[in-house]
Amino acid sequence: MALSVKGRTAIITGAGSGINFAYAKLLIENGCNVLIADLALRPEAKTLVETYSTGSPRAIFQQTDVCEWLQLERMFEVAEREFGEVDIVCPGAGVYEPHWSNFWRPPGSAPSKDARDGGRYALVDINITHPIRTSQLAIAHFLKHRGNGRPKHLIHISSIAGQNPAMAAPIYVATKHAINGLVRSLSKLDRLGIRVTAVAPGVIKTPLWTEHPEKLKMVDDSADEWVTPEEVAEVMLALVQQDQVSEIIGDRSGKGHQYKVVGGTILEVSKTVREVTAFNDPGPGDRPGNTASDHGAVEEESFGLLLQEGWGLGAKL
């Protein structure tokens, strides 16, 4: 099922920044065409698209709201028109319990953009409904091109939150538990030449954290260590190109422990790599890159919101 990405094509949602941008950049540098689907591009992503606008490999940007299913269909249509066939799909767009879609700031509270009569949470739409729908579309596309025998890859972004509880971000945690279940449930698609895998990153130094002071309060720079988007992207590339992945990021020696890659594989990426098993897994633990030590301030803020009169009843808190 290993696939050299050179000359292939990928669709990546959320690749305008962060982990998904790092993955898009790494794929392009290894000869893979990439369609970046996002609401907008940060400067570094804009530069990438401009640099690879012609020739081979090529990068294109398709403005996409991942909550809109017709726009998800459109990104496949554009990729097929521009590149002919898609081999790798990463439904990577995600958010980390923003104030505008947040368990502790329910619909009807001042920061929330989730309407009281809307029947949905934007956070759930982005973090789990969009990966589910994109997976369906990807599988349909892959099956349409099944006759050529080329392996196909669907790679998801989970998190250590897929195992850890976090009072500060309960909906985010629930969505990442759901991603793990989705990936494992699709593991037998190996039979059709479609490998479904995921990475479960630790605390990653991306704008998702660095540009949000309410989240940075949880990180203790003296005790916690950041994982870089590039380290995660390297593991994502390995999940596609290799049948085994080293526990040490960047280790090409083969001397360290090697994890076999099959459908349903979930690899935790801290400052090392380990497989997340479905049963009796020890959990992320406090390995370097897995800890945000100071949840206390955010948890106290949550209790403060809960104790305000009218919490959850539509009051403008």
Describe this structure in words.
By secondary structure, this protein is an alpha/beta fold. It contains nine helices and ten strands. The strands form two sheets. Strands 3-2-1-4-5-6-9-10 form an eight-stranded mixed sheet, sandwiched between helices. Strands 7-8 form a two-stranded antiparallel sheet. Strand 9 and strand 10 form a beta hairpin. Belongs to the short-chain dehydrogenases/reductases (SDR) family.
Quick recap of the structure?
The protein is built from nine helices and ten strands. It is of the alpha/beta class and 317 residues long. The chain has one domain: NAD(P)-binding Rossmann-like Domain (Rossmann fold, 3-Layer(aba) Sandwich).
Helix and strand topology:
Blueprint: E1 9-13, H1 18-29, E2 33-38, H2 43-51, E3 59-63, H3 69-83, E4 88-90, H4 122-144, E5 152-157, H5 170-185, E6 194-201, H6 207-210, H7 213-216, H8 229-241, E7 244-246, E8 258-260, E9 266-269, E10 273-275, H9 296-306
Parallel strand pairs: 1-2, 1-4, 2-3, 4-5, 5-6, 6-9
Antiparallel strand pairs: 7-8, 9-10
Helix pairs in contact: 1-8, 3-4, 4-5
- Please list the strands of the largest sheet in the order they lie side by side: 3-2-1-4-5-6-9-10
**Share of helix among residues?**
25-40%
Q: How many DSSP H or I helices?
A: 9
CATH architecture: 3-Layer(aba) Sandwich
CATH topology: Rossmann fold
Strand content: 5-15%
Q: How many strand segments?
A: 10
**Shape annotation:** globular
The helix/strand series, from N terminus to C terminus, equals EHEHEHEHEHEHHHEEEEH
Q: Taking all residues together, what is the mean pLDDT?
A: 90
The N- to C-terminal Cα distance equals 52 Å
By CATH, the superfamily comes out as: NAD(P)-binding Rossmann-like Domain
Q: Which regions are unreliable across 5 or more consecutive residues at pLDDT < 50? A: none
